[in-house]
Specification:
CATH topology of the largest domain: Beta-Lactamase
Strand content: 15-25%
CATH superfamily of the largest domain: GAF domain
Oligomer: single chain
Distance between the termini: 54 Å
Number of strands: 6
CATH class of the largest domain: Alpha Beta
Strand order of the largest sheet: 3-2-1-6-5-4
Order of helices and strands: HHHHHHEEHEHEHEEH
Structural class: alpha+beta
Largest sheet: 6 strands, antiparallel
Number of helices: 10
Number of domains: 2
CATH architecture of the largest domain: 2-Layer Sandwich
Radius of gyration: 19 Å
């Protein structure tokens, strides 16, 4: 289907509101505007009795990242109180970098020949970077945290199993992630960091700025290293 470009002008205060809501939804501002426009046109088509158009547009809206769950809501996996309690019990939220975690992340990057590796902890509304060798982009390299609008690892927490994507730009859900334009992440392979209680804290992942195929052996290597990450977490857990 042909794509048509358009320019939409808003005042600065409206843009600020749009960007704030987009961050809450974990999508880009462009995606939020697109979904709002599609749903509005679907509503108008339904009002005039054009059910075919209304149904088709509603289906498009439901297939978008923002349309998969009610506006303003978070994935139940991310907001699960027991998971969040387990995450806080690690004592690692907002903790400084530690060589033990950096060593494992560097090893992941080296073994998979990836320019960047991350050990992430996914909170209910943000992603913490316990280790981030290869990340040099401001402000995330300095703050070592980001909103969920830039988090691919949140989907590993949701799935509770590895997420392997050769090209995020072609993925039906992840193609609108701000991690692509802002962090230059195109290829992604991440595995869950799962505590003994069964709760997923985040992900050990590697990324590339170019499309690439991740092999099953590489994913197994990540899973083996993730076990070592869990061992380090348990040494520090309250």
């Amino acid at each position: 289907m042909a794509m048509r470009a358009t320019t939409i002008r808003f005042s600065d205060d409206v843009w600020e509101l749009l960007e704030r809501e987009a961050r809450r939804q974990g999508v880009s501002s462009a995606q939020l505007i697109r979904d709002a426009a599609v749903m509005r046109v679907a509503y108008l088509a339904g009002q005039r009795g054009d059910e075919e158009t209304a149904t088709g547009l509603a289906r498009i809206a439901a297939d978008s990242p923002a349309g998969r769950r009610p506006a303003g809501s978070r994935s139940p996996a991310l907001t699960d109180p027991e998971r969040l309690a387990s995450l806080r019990a690690t004592g690692l939220l907002d903790s400084p970098a530690e060589e033990d975690f950096d060593r494992l992340a560097r090893l992941a990057a080296r073994l998979l020949d990836a320019p960047m590796a991350l050990v992430t902890l996914v909170d209910s509304d943000r992603q913490l970077l316990k280790s981030a060798p290869g990340l040099t982009i401001s402000p995330w390299a300095e703050t070592r945290e980001m909103s969920l609008s830039h988090s691919i690892c949140q989907h590993v927490v949701e799935r509770q199993k590895p997420l392997v994507v050769d090209d995020l730009r072609e993925h039906p859900v992840l193609r609108d992630s701000l991690a692509i334009p802002d962090l230059g992440i195109v290829a992604y392979a991440g595995v869950p960091i799962t505590r003994p209680d069964g709760h997923v804290m985040g992900s050990l992942c590697v990324t590339d700025s170019e499309p690439r195929h991740w092999t099953s052996d590489q994913v197994q290597t990540l899973e083996d290293l993730a076990h070592s990450v869990v061992s380090e977490i348990e040494l520090r857990a309250h």
